[in-house]
Design goal:
Largest sheet: 8 strands, antiparallel
Structural class: mainly beta
Number of strands: 17
Radius of gyration: 20 Å
Distance between the termini: 14 Å
Number of helices: 3
Strand content: over 45%
Length: 263
């Protein structure tokens, strides 16, 4: 964790993003919801609002209207580890008969990116057992896999966390204690040379999403560095995905920067 890979998941040796959320305010419901914690909160990209059931088992569900392809679910802003909850990603053709794509028992409250084999189904849900827990963000998506992982001189997100520290010293310099506040994680993702067909094809949707400042889940190397994952957005207000054609326009240099939420 935080990357959870179910048997049969593909492209886990490459950098991936889960960004094109098929869940919307119009198609999300829940089995129960506490006052002030409605199901619709999970499709709000903000991490300060959340869905909270009143009892378990419970679920938050998406009805896509027709079958959609999904192979990744991102969950941010949860306290499932602290509360002792178990989370399962399930799908159904009719909203009645459910199949489990992946199950995770979080050991902490770090964000999760759950990868599994591609499935086409109309109904998707996160099914909660064990204990009620807050869930702020859920993204049901078909992931985008980049041609490879970031190249050398790359800092994984779990090693790129930044902290605001407030130290307290006495007049004589005695160490009286300090206060530490996590403020996120930032890193530069340089993919180096990629084929031009990728930046002019599969990348286009995510490029627009990123450049407009929208959020997404990013993992640099799911199978090799499962801690290198975060719920992200562009690092700065004017940050865009950088694409530069090279080698007679046959290849392209591709890079972008991310800022991750740290719960």
């Amino acid at each position: 964790m935080p990357v959870v890979i179910a048997a049969g998941a593909v492209d886990t040796g490459r950098a991936v993003v889960s960004w094109n959320n098929l869940a919307t305010a119009a198609n999300v419901t829940a089995s129960t919801a506490a006052v002030g914690y409605p199901a619709v909160n999970v499709v709000d990209p903000a991490t300060w609002s959340s869905w909270l059931a009143t009892a378990v088992p419970a679920w938050v569900r998406m009805d896509a209207g027709s079958a959609v392809q999904v192979d990744s679910v991102g969950i941010a802003g949860h306290n499932a580890g602290s509360e002792g909850a178990v989370l399962a990603v399930q799908h159904s053709p009719d909203g009645t008969t459910w199949t489990t794509a992946a199950t995770v028992t979080p050991t902490n409250d770090e964000d999760l990116l759950i990868l599994f084999p591609l499935v086409s189904a109309r109904y998707w849900r996160v099914y909660v057992t064990g204990a009620v827990c807050n869930i702020a963000v859920v993204i049901f998506s078909k992931k985008l896999a980049f041609p490879h992982s970031p190249i050398d001189s790359y800092t994984p997100l779990n090693h790129a966390r930044t902290y605001t520290k407030e130290f307290n010293d006495s007049i004589k310099g005695a160490l009286l204690g300090n206060r530490v506040m996590a403020t996120g994680a930032e890193t530069d993702v340089d993919l180096g040379f990629v084929d031009r067909w990728f930046v002019d094809g599969p990348l286009v949707g995510f490029e627009s999403h990123y450049n407009q400042g929208n959020t997404f889940f990013y993992a640099g190397w799911p199978a090799g560095k499962p801690l290198d994952m975060g719920y992200c957005r562009a690092m700065g207000d004017d940050e865009i995905i950088a694409v530069e054609y090279v080698e007679a326009d046959k290849l392209a240099n591709l890079s972008f920067s991310v800022r991750a939420y740290v719960g």
